[in-house]
UniProtKB/TrEMBL annotation:
Location(s), subcellular: Membrane
UniProt superkingdom: Bacteria
Organism: Salipiger mangrovisoli
Family under the similarity heading: Belongs to the sodium:solute symporter (SSF) (TC 2.A.21) family.
Protein name: Cation acetate symporter
Lineage: Bacteria, Pseudomonadati, Pseudomonadota, Alphaproteobacteria, Rhodobacterales
Length: 593
């Protein structure tokens, strides 16, 4: 059986499972559509939360970013994990105790203002839409490779699948679908990692193999990797080669952005009581840790395998030849990925070899001139393909490659569904029912939610065709927007007496300053003086666009507290509401809503 057929079997079986679950768990009321009827078990909710959390960025892109940068991109691991802990400890139980369906509804009621609710809806839609672009990018990458079509066609196919199970199932259908998707994605991520760790180090536990010995050379694996990348002009894999301030701000942006993203917060509204929200958070962290403890090993081992393929040992420093790429089965993965447009190479100097090295390093430029090289001839290696290509590079069995195909799609689709549900809930429940037509019937609200989700899928698909970066980079921008707008409002709503004017002013200020910085930094305003900026050329000191969310959050807090201090204090009943939400009354029936 050829690899294409195996891929179709694995992907097709997983899709049949997801759609079957969605039909079985079809939402019949707004309570089921928004909060799964508040009847989800904590362990089930923890697994669904993990699938919702571990998006295409975690599954597809994070290991790729770590692989090609090394230590500095461990910020993704630290920020996302730390942010989840922050969410579980500081926000989830209190928001569940408040007893509302959506984050925007909490903000509107806590700050006793329809305007606050409307601003929260706008912030939520902007952040969630940016986030879902990254997921749809991942869907296109995975479908494009394993159905052997271009990534745009893959993206369109993925959008149809998301529509099929998310629009009709709502939160109830999405919850149980995500449980199945978690099982698929975690098996797809860990099984290849175990195989590759055994190949390279003899240790079946990837996290331990990362600090083990490379069997081929007898050297510590990380030391061997440091040596190879250093010889090619790159910074040492285990060294801190970037700017410390930017790394700290980036980690902080990811952390507080995590705690402000509504699609994860919504999951804590689905359990029967507040104590279950805490248990859900704990179980989710266990399930998330299984992948996050494996990701650094996947990145390092993949980088070692790829680099050694382009500079094979025993060739006296000669790069891999085009003849070898075309005829050696070990390089078949390159031809397959070339069809997607995400991997390209070009023998610029016509020597029959493909040189891969850091052509921006002065020492390597000097060596390249002496050797007659014409620059880095591996012209494109999209970070998002690394995890999917890893089993092929390591020559693993066909069923493992098929499993990884299903896993990559599960990761992207699970988070895309959660985000689209958050967007549709904001439009139907907070905007239409809360602002435009409060008298709308439950049936009408349910229909408006489904229409809103269908429109959101269409918009996300269109934007996913031209994303502003790799999946994880696009997601990082979304985290920055959530960090600057939603997180401060939630924190102040629970732990302070900030009034409605302060909250509205803070959210607007945080969102605008972050959007303007990102747009200027990316050159999206088409201003000549800014169009040349990139993530390598920050505008404000060393702060990159993906790190600015922490600064935007600070602006939000400062503006909110300043405006609040200059205006009337919150009403007495709101003050009592804040106290009732924040002060624990014990677990059990007293907390149930």
């Amino acid at each position: 059986m050829d690899q294409f057929t195996i891929n179709l079997l694995f992907v097709g079986a997983s899709f049949a499972l997801y759609i079957g679950i969605a039909i079985w768990a079809r939402a019949g009321s707004t309570s089921e559509f928004y909060a799964a009827g508040r009847g989800v078990h904590p362990v089930t909710n923890g697994m669904a939360t993990a699938a919702d959390w571990m998006s295409a960025a975690s599954f597809l892109s994070m290991a790729g970013l770590i692989a090609f940068t090394g230590y500095d991109n461990s910020a993704y691991l630290m920020g996302w994990t730390g942010g989840y802990v922050l969410l579980a400890l500081l926000l989830a139980p209190y928001l569940r105790k408040f007893g509302k369906f959506t984050v925007s509804e909490f903000i509107g009621d806590r700050f006793y203002s329809p305007t606050a609710r409307l601003v929260a809806v706008i912030c939520l839609i902007i952040a969630s839409t940016t986030y879902v672009i990254g997921q749809m990018t991942g869907v296109g990458v995975a479908f494009g490779r394993f159905l052997e079509v271009d990534s745009t066609t893959g993206l369109l196919i993925g959008a149809v699948i998301v529509f099929a199970y998310a629009v009709f199932g709502g939160m109830k259908g999405v919850t149980y679908t995500q449980v199945a998707q978690y099982v698929v994605l975690i098996l797809a991520y860990t099984i290849p990692a175990i195989f590759i760790s055994l190949q390279l180090t003899g240790n079946p536990i990837p996290g331990l193999g990362l600090f083990g010995t490379d069997q081929a050379s007898g050297e510590p694996l990380l030391a061997k990797l440091d040596q190879i990348v250093r010889e090619l002009g790159f910074g040492e894999y285990t060294a801190h080669n970037g700017d410390t301030l930017n790394m700290v701000l980036f980690t902080l942006s990811l952390m507080i952005g995590t705690a402000g993203l509504p699609h994860v917060i919504m999951r804590f509204f689905t359990v029967p009581k507040v104590a279950d929200a805490r248990w859900s958070a704990g179980w989710a962290l266990v399930f998330i840790a299984l992948l996050y403890l494996t990701a650094p090993a996947v990145g390092a081992m993949a980088r070692l395998n790829i680099t050694q393929q382009f500079w094979p040992e025993g060739t006296e420093g000669k790069a891999v030849s085009i003849e070898q790429i075309e005829n050696d089965p070990a390089y078949d993965w390159m031809a397959t990925w070339q069809k997607t447009g995400l991997l390209t190479w070009n023998d610029t100097n016509g020597d029959g070899l493909i040189q891969y090295y850091n052509d921006k390093n002065p020492a390597m430029q000097e060596k390249a001139t002496a050797e007659g090289w014409a620059g880095n001839e591996l012209t494109k290696f999209d970070n998002d393909i690394l995890v999917l290509a890893n089993p092929e590079i390591a020559n693993l069995p066909g069923w493992v490659i098929g499993l990884v195909a299903a896993g990559g799609l599960a990761a992207a689709l699970s988070t895309a569904a959660g985000l689209l549900l958050a967007i549709s809930s904001a439009v139907s429940h907070d905007l239409i029912k809360g602002q435009i037509n409060p008298a709308i019937s439950e049936k009408g609200e349910l229909m408006s939610a489904r229409v809103a989700m269908a429109v959101a899928i269409a918009v996300a698909t269109w934007l996913g065709m031209n994303p502003p970066g790799f999946a994880a980079q696009t997601v990082a921008l979304a985290f920055g927007l959530a960090a600057a707008s939603i997180f401060p409002a939630l924190m102040m709503g629970i732990f302070s007496k900030v009034n409605n004017k302060g909250a509205v002013a803070g959210m607007i200020a945080g969102l605008l300053v972050t959007l303007v910085y990102i747009f200027l930094h990316k050159g999206w305003f088409f201003i000549p003086d800014t169009a040349s900026y990139s993530d390598a050329d920050p505008m404000l000191g060393t702060i990159k666009s993906t790190s600015f969310g922490a600064v935007g959050a600070l602006v939000n807090f400062v503006v909110a507290f300043t405006v609040s201090a200059m205006s009337k204090p919150i009403p007495r009943e709101i003050s009592q509401l804040v106290e009732s939400v924040r002060i624990p009354r014990g677990a059990g029936a007293a907390q149930d809503h």
